[in-house]
Design goal:
It is a single chain. The protein has 71 residues and is mainly alpha-helical. It has one helix at residues 2-49. It is rod-shaped and about 75 Å long.
Amino acid sequence: MAHRSELDALAVELAKRLQEVEAGREKLGIAERVLRRLAEQDRAYTEAAGVGGLDESAGGGACGAADPASW
């Protein structure tokens, strides 16, 4: 019986940790979408102003971070 109790407690702990991980992933997804929008706005502004953007080898956008998929 003690073993079942330990497993039940572990299941509860793992469920809590899974919820925390899922919440963290959701926040990360939101941050990535915001970053993409900011990079798109920066690109549009740069194009509208007729100003050369950052070096393409830097990945474009602010700090070379326009495409989080390239990280």
